[in-house]
Amino acid sequence: MVVAAIALAERDGLAELSMRRLAAELGAGTMSLYNHVSDKEDSADWREIVATWATDGRQVLLDRIDLIPLVIAPQRLVHLGRISGAVGSALERAGLDPGAAATVVRVVGRYFAGAVLLDAPRLRTGGVSRSALDRTFATGLSALLSGLDAEVVG
Fold it and tell me: What average pLDDT does the chain have?
């Protein structure tokens, strides 16, 4: 779904990206996209769900640095909220209570967004390797998830 959304945005422009257009691109119903969670996510540990969301989302954005300002534009906040809501729902299905799920999404979302905004300019200037940034992100995410497990979930 993410790959199709990116392809649609790159082909037609971000202004043309909508759930309806993405659903048509995928041959699916619009509402089904909001509820789409794979079987793997349904049975996954909450940490796996969050790590996949943050890591894959960061990778997609850093692979397409020019789209970052469009993705975080104020008019896209509703779409970002839907993504966060879907992640929160997956966390609830993985056993987190709604309050803990919401806190995890907010905290990790801020970490992931901050990492993208800090890493993108460093990649543009070539000041550091992508693999070094990826290792730093993974280390920080692991520590953050351990802290959330102890403080919020546990």
Answer: 82
pTM for this predicted structure: 0.70
Q: Measured between alpha carbons, how far is 52 from 64 in angstroms, rounded to an integer?
A: 18
Angle of helix 46-63 relative to helix 98-125, nearest 10 degrees, comes to 30
For the record, the structure tokens of 119 come out as 């890493």
Mean pLDDT of 127-142: 94
- Supply 95's token pair: 């056993």
Mean pLDDT across 16-39: 64
Question: What tokens were used for 78?
Answer: 């509703």
76 phi and psi, to 5 degrees? -100, 0
The amino acid at residue 27 is G
Rg of the Cα atoms in the chain: 16
| Per-position b or e across 32-47, b if 16+ CB within 10 A of its CB | ebeeeeeeebeebebb
More confident site: 106 or 75: 106
What is the CB neighbour count within 10 angstroms for residue 123?
15
Q: Can you tell me the distance from the alpha carbon of 88 to that of 106, in angstroms, rounded to the nearest whole number?
A: 9
Opening angle at CA 42, ends 37 and 45, nearest 5: 125
Distance between CA atoms of residues 57 and 96, nearest Å = 22
